[in-house]
Amino acid sequence: MRPIDSRDPLAHPEALIRRVYAYVAYRVGDGPAAEDITGETFVRAVRYRESYDAAKGRPADWLLGIARHCVSDARAEGATHSPPEEVVATGDVAAEAADRLALRAALSDLSERDRELIALRYGADLSARQIARHLGRRTNSVEVALHRALGRLRETLGEGEWREPRVSEPSTSPSRSHEGM
Predict the structure, then answer these.
(1) CATH number of the domain where residue 107 is located
(2) Rounded distance, CA 15 to CA 23, Å?
(3) How many domains does the chain have?
(4) In a domain, 134, yes or no
């Protein structure tokens, strides 16, 4: 086994775990399924740690690529739908629940490509430049595609109901609800 050093993509896992979980939760929802997929991502990362190439990107980019495959595999197996977790209410519970349900329904109406862009931007908290590097595309094309995806989301939700998610540090606890979902 390789010693942990500065070239080890898993040398500082805390922030990476939060980022991967936030991305996965955007794709499949908070809860046990997201936790399982995040765990599988790190199992694969440990297994294939030797394949990491720092010249090709940061550890977070590498892990998000693995997470994308894990989400896809879980969806193929039908393992991404789990009952919602209990969350401590901090405001108007009915309005927050309605917003979350409306957003989830609107997201499900988008194409897979649009959902992926939104998850990378707001779940994984990546910039357009980072998304472009991650997907092997040009920054400008990602910015345009993201703008259009958000436009379609606004259209589905109706202008009065849309509030762009705040991009913030993912929660420290994978079981907590995420802003913007």
Answers:
(1) 1.10.10.10
(2) 12
(3) 2
(4) yes
Q: Are residues 141 and 78 in the same domain?
A: no
Alpha carbon distance 157, 117 (integer Å): 18
CA distances from 107 to 24, 29, 115, 116, 117 (A): 14, 12, 6, 10, 11
In the structure encoding, which two tokens stand for residue 121, read together? Answer: 């931007």
Q: Please, which contacts does 35-38 make with residues 24 or more away whose CB atoms are closer than 8 Å?
A: 35/174, 35/175, 36/74, 36/79, 37/67, 37/70, 37/71, 37/74, 37/80, 38/67, 38/174
CA-CA-CA-CA dihedral for 173, 7, 58, 33, to nearest 10: -30
**149 is a domain residue:** yes
13 and 43 in a single domain? The answer is: yes
pTM of the full predicted structure?
0.64
Residues 72 and 98 in one domain: no
What is the residue range of 117's domain? 92-161
For every one of its 181 residues, what pLDDT tens digit does the chain have, with 9 covering 90 and above? 444 445 788 888 888 999 999 999 888 888 899 999 999 999 999 999 998 988 888 898 899 999 999 999 988 887 544 444 555 556 666 777 777 777 778 888 899 899 889 989 988 888 999 899 888 899 999 999 999 999 998 888 875 555 555 544 444 344 333 444 3
> Does one domain contain both 112 and 69?
no
- CA–CA gap between residue 122 and residue 126 (Å, rounded): 7
